[in-house]
């Protein structure tokens, strides 16, 4: 069965990469990529996949479709739909977090740029679990261990002062 990794290797090999580079691109370790690339190049499934892809004929039109005038009512409307304007970014934000928030929410920006802004902003809004200092972690572990075990340290006795006499 042709796995996703083998398919990626075959496609990378067909694009002109060396066997080692194709193996690395497919997700194999760089240390073993040379031997794995050689092994996969001899794999019957990979060879059959490459042969199938080489035999496929890609149909092309004589006239490119991008140059033809095509009537599509949803696109070719007489009224203009104004796209939302991007906020003026240069010098508008004093806080980097607000700038990243604006980039993330900007609908005119590419989705990859918006994702990168969200990733950069994430640690400041949602800290990782367990992101405390060493002392706090040690104290929390000690507290959890003492309360969960019957052999933990006992609470000190309560002292009651009796001043009657």
TrEMBL record:
Residues 128-149 are annotated as: Disordered. GO terms for biological process: chromosome organization. Residues 139-149 have a biased composition (Low complexity). Residues 128-138 have a biased composition (Basic and acidic residues). Pfam families: Terminase_2. Signal peptide: none annotated. This is Phage terminase small subunit. It comes from Franconibacter pulveris. The lineage of its organism: Bacteria, Pseudomonadati, Pseudomonadota, Gammaproteobacteria, Enterobacterales.
């Amino acid at each position: 069965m042709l796995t996703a990794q083998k398919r990626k290797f075959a496609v990378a090999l067909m694009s002109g990469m060396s066997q080692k580079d194709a193996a690395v691109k497919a997700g194999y370790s760089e240390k073993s990529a040379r031997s794995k690339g050689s092994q996969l190049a001899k794999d019957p499934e990979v060879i059959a996949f490459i042969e199938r892809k080489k035999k496929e004929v890609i149909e092309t039109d004589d006239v490119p479709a991008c140059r033809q005038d095509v009537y599509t009512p949803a696109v070719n409307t007489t009224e203009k739909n104004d796209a939302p304007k991007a906020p003026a970014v240069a010098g508008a934000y004093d806080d980097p977090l607000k700038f990243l928030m604006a980039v993330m929410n900007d609908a005119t920006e590419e989705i990859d740029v918006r994702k990168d802004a969200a990733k950069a902003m994430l640690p400041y809004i949602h800290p990782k679990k367990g992101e405390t200092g060493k002392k706090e972690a040690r104290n929390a572990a000690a507290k959890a261990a003492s309360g969960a075990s019957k052999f933990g340290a006992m609470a000190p006795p309560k002292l009651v002062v009796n001043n009657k006499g």
